[in-house]
Design a protein that fits this description.
single chain; about 350 residues; alpha/beta; Four Helix Bundle (Hemerythrin (Met), subunit A); Rossmann fold; 2 domains; seven-stranded mixed sheet; four-stranded mixed sheet; 11 helices; about 40% helix; binds 5-S-methyl-1-O-phosphono-5-thio-D-ribulose
């Protein structure tokens, strides 16, 4: 970490400022802390697509801010025309990444506000207010989730996490890393093992960065060392985030999560998932979820450096599915769902 990347704790991953969307450019971390400012929803769509902003809750809020920009950009004078402009922008924002359900959720929340509005000006104001509220809610939800999750972890636990489900994947505080933060705030001493998370290295670039920055004892491992660390008693518990959880408890998260969960089961290590209710998809079944496939160059090289020969085939799925039988509990802002998940997830929504 160089001096430019010192961040203060009130910093947000994505924010609405003076009718613009301001984001940390995560593609530059951990070497540089660069903020980008957008006043056009197309720029926000591009930022989501190119991983300037990533992580399910962060892209949910970014989508909402994108639609707020689209509302301000619209020159229309009637509600009907404004809704048409918003629908077009929604499609462009939605088509950026298919797996995290929070993106569609964030866009739908804003469309509901638009439909409920009366005049063009009133709709524009209430859309901006709603998007800002979603950003605030995200932080509060993460903190509540943290409190529910922290009781599952003990003093001197070493907790493994995969990818980045931290402050950088949300507006602030994080989901899985929020639980780890809350555990530490409750007075327990914990260590963290972060997997590197190839191919984009969210674990080394982002998780190790934000935990080190916040004074955690964090060790980085290559993804290939998950089995070794578990077999050698170096891990007590695992907590990861999620991009989508269906009603049966199948969890879609960063590629490699399934391997970590399988290995945790093999070694009798509790495997937790932390996610807000906005990450649940109560309509689709596991087999309907689209797994984003990304370009081969992410695998045939690291950054700009080529590490594989030209002309080979590459399979590069960005996410995988962890089945419910590998999951010990799902931590949400409404409490912890335990197996059997069909029943416990249903109850979370009934309590909502
Ligand atoms: O491709 P990414 O970096 O957007 O993937 C992110 C993850 O898989 C996270 O674990 C998930 O979004 C949960 S973030 C709180």
């Amino acid at each position: 970490m160089n001096s430019q990347t010192k961040i203060n704790s009130s910093l947000r991953t994505v924010e609405w400022k003076n009718n613009k969307v301001v984001m940390i450019d995560q593609t530059k971390l951990p070497n540089e802390l660069v903020f980008v400012e957008y006043n056009d929803f197309n720029q926000v769509a591009n930022a989501i697509k190119t991983l300037v902003v990533r992580g399910a809750p962060a892209i949910g809020v970014s989508g909402a801010f994108g639609l707020a920009l689209a509302a301000l950009q619209s020159k229309t004078t009637t509600k009907t025309e404004l809704i048409l402009d918003l629908e077009k922008a929604k499609k462009i924002l939605f088509d950026t990444r298919p797996t995290a359900i929070n993106l569609g959720w964030g866009l739908e929340q804003i469309m509901k506000v638009a439909h409920a509005g009366t005049s063009v000006n009133q709709i524009k104001t209430s859309i901006v207010d709603e998007a800002k509220k979603m950003a605030e809610d995200d932080i509060n939800i993460n903190k509540t989730m943290g409190k529910y999750g922290s009781v599952l972890f003990e003093n001197n636990d070493t907790i493994m996490t995969h990818c980045n489900a931290g402050a950088l994947a949300t507006v602030a505080y994080g989901t899985a890393l929020g639980v780890i933060r809350a555990t530490k705030e409750s007075g327990k001493n914990v260590k963290v093992i972060a997997t590197e998370t190839r191919p984009i290295q969210q674990g080394s670039r982002l998780t190790a960065f934000e935990l080190k920055h916040d004074g955690f004892d964090v060790s980085l491992i290559p993804d290939t060392a998950v089995g070794y660390t578990m077999a050698n008693g170096l891990v007590n518990k695992v907590v990861v985030g999620a991009d989508r959880i269906v009603k049966t408890g199948h969890v879609f998260n960063k590629i490699g999560t399934y391997q970590v969960a399988t290995m945790a089961k093999q070694h009798g290590i509790p495997f937790y998932v932390a996610a807000p209710l906005s990450t649940f998809d109560m309509k689709n079944n596991a087999q309907d979820v689209i797994i984003e496939m990304r370009k081969g160059s992410e695998v045939t090289g690291i950054g700009d450096k080529k590490t594989a020969p030209d002309g080979i085939g590459v399979i590069n799925p960005a996410f995988d599915m962890t089945p419910p039988e590998l999951i010990t509990g799902i931590i949400t802002e409404k409490g912890v769902a335990k197996p059997p998940f069909k029943e416990s997830i249903k109850k979370l929504f009934e309590a909502n």
